[in-house]
Every structure is written in C-alpha cells, then in structure tokens.
Specification:
- With 191 residues, this protein is an alpha+beta fold.
- It contains 5 helices and 6 strands; from the N terminus they run E-E-E-H-E-H-H-H-E-E-H.
- The chain has a 4-stranded mixed sheet with strand order 4-3-5-6, with helices on one face.
C-alpha cells in the first residue's frame, strides 16, 4: 500500500478511470454513500459544505456502495440521477464500489488501514442498533478496521494523508468543524 492516496485510481460514474492524483493539493472528504440509508439526508449538508468551500480547494468525492444491507441496488446512472434530483449534488461521484472484504477497492483498504474504526458515536440513538448488528458477527468486531456502514467519511489533507475518519453515527456538525479547521490551518491553495 502507498503512503498517500494519489497512487490510486477509481472509475467515475460514467466508467472513466480517474487518478486521484488529479485532486493533489486539495482537501478531500471521501464519503461512502448509500441511497436508502437512514443517513441519506446528509447529502444536503455535504452539498452545502461543498458549495461554501469548493473555491478554497475543497472537494467531496462520493463513492456509492451496495455492501450494507442492500441499500443501493440502483445503477450508477440511477444513483447519480437520484442524488441530483433529490439533493442537487454537484460534487464528483464515482461508480459503485465495494469498500470492505476481499472485493474491496484498494483505496478503501488503504483508508481503513490508515484510519481505523474507533467506535460509534455514543450520543447517536442508532449507535446501539449498529453495534448490535456487528456484535452478532462475533467477538473482535470493534478491532476490525473495515468500514462499518454508509456515510463513513475520510478527511484527507492537501498532501494526500488521511487525517480523520468519521463513522456513520458521527454528527455532521463535528465533521464540518473538522473540515473547516483543516481549511483554516492549511489555507494555501494550489493554483
């Protein structure tokens, strides 16, 4: 595995291979998404954050997946249409990928290794439900670094280093605060 994500590539929503090196010098929020997740309304918050800070060198990269409870059976075109029609999203969207297990895209193996699972947010009423789903899989689930659900997010520095991991139960206000802090402390934008 590489030391930063610029060596990775992924297919965009139209099936074109995109090198993540094209985002070099930008602050990234890489988001694992699912259309029928209880957290899908976060698309609205993500788009607001994107519109407000895109000019500062901030990008959101959306990676839909159907690996969690069958919440995204739609095609890439249907996913894109749904997000644009319902949440007016304008940030880059990639083709549907696997984000955990043997078939996981290498990018998500890298991100999960760099920023491990640290638990669900204790203040979120859905946290015990998600924990219960994983407890049934057996002991040691909380030490497994793999992605636990859609709307897990990774904050990436301008140098391509994974800085923070946010679980699906993390309040969006906390995510936004961390993004703004990184934008404030790393304000030099590559032209």
């Amino acid at each position: 595995m590489e030391d930063n994500l610029y060596s990775y590539s992924a297919l965009d929503k139209k099936g074109h291979l995109v090198s993540l090196s094209s985002y070099q010098g930008m602050i990234l929020l890489i988001v694992v998404t699912s259309l029928h997740s209880p957290f899908v309304s976060e698309y609205k918050d993500l788009e607001r954050l994107y519109i407000m800070h895109q000019r500062e060198g901030f990008e959101i990269l959306d990676f839909p997946t159907d690996q969690f409870w069958g919440e995204t059976p739609e095609s890439d075109a249907e996913i894109d249409a749904f997000c644009k029609e319902n949440y007016h999203t304008t940030f880059p969207r990639f083709a549907k990928v696997d984000v955990r297990g043997e078939s996981a895209h290498p990018l998500f193996l890298y991100l999960s290794k760099k920023k491990k699972f640290t638990g669900f947010d204790p203040g979120n009423p859905l946290s015990p439900i998600f924990a219960d789903r994983y407890i049934k899989q057996g002991p040691g689930w909380e030490k497994d670094p793999s992605i636990k659900g859609p709307f897990t997010m990774f904050l990436i520095t301008r140098e391509g280093k994974a800085k923070k991991r946010f679980e699906l139960t993390t309040p969006f206000e906390k995510i936004e605060k961390e993004v703004l802090h990184l934008l404030d402390t790393d304000s030099e934008v590559e032209e």
